[in-house]
Amino acid sequence: MTERPARIRAGGCLLGIALALLSLASCMTNEVHEARGVLVDVQSREIQNADSVTLRGGDGSVRSFRVSPEVASNADHPNSASHLRQHMMLGDPVVIRYRQTADGLVAVRILDASPS
Question: 39-83, pLDDT tens digit by residue?
């Protein structure tokens, strides 16, 4: 008889942990973060849409981002793969707005940044 309540408690605890992780995962995909720096790599299979970019921040940190197609199709500030490569070659700073997902960092917008 004592085994059953222990199993119920363990199952309830596991359910609570699973719900907390699910809640955390949904928050991670919705919140938009921002990173500033210079592009040190741009990968693409076509001229329009970049597949990924690598950013070196002012503190020397290096982060890679998958690039959402909405980066190139943004009506306010479209950034094609070729334009991003131009930023990389000239060392022009950018601001990357991104979401943290279970699959890694995903850039949803890349903007020109003024030098700091």
Answer: 999 999 988 999 999 999 999 999 999 999 989 888 887 889 999
* CATH number among 2.40.50, 3.50.80, 2.20.200, 3.30.460, domain 32-112: 2.40.50
> Which amino acid is it at 106?
V
Closest to 39 in 3D by CA, of 103, 104, 99, 111: 111
Give the CA distances from residue 31 to residues 63, 64, 70, 95, 107, in Å, rounded to whole numbers and listed in that order: 18, 18, 16, 16, 12
Question: What is the token pair recorded at 87?
Answer: 């930023």
pTM > 0.85: yes or no: no
Q: CB–CB of 109/70 below 8 Å?
A: yes
Domain boundaries, the chain: 1-30, 32-112
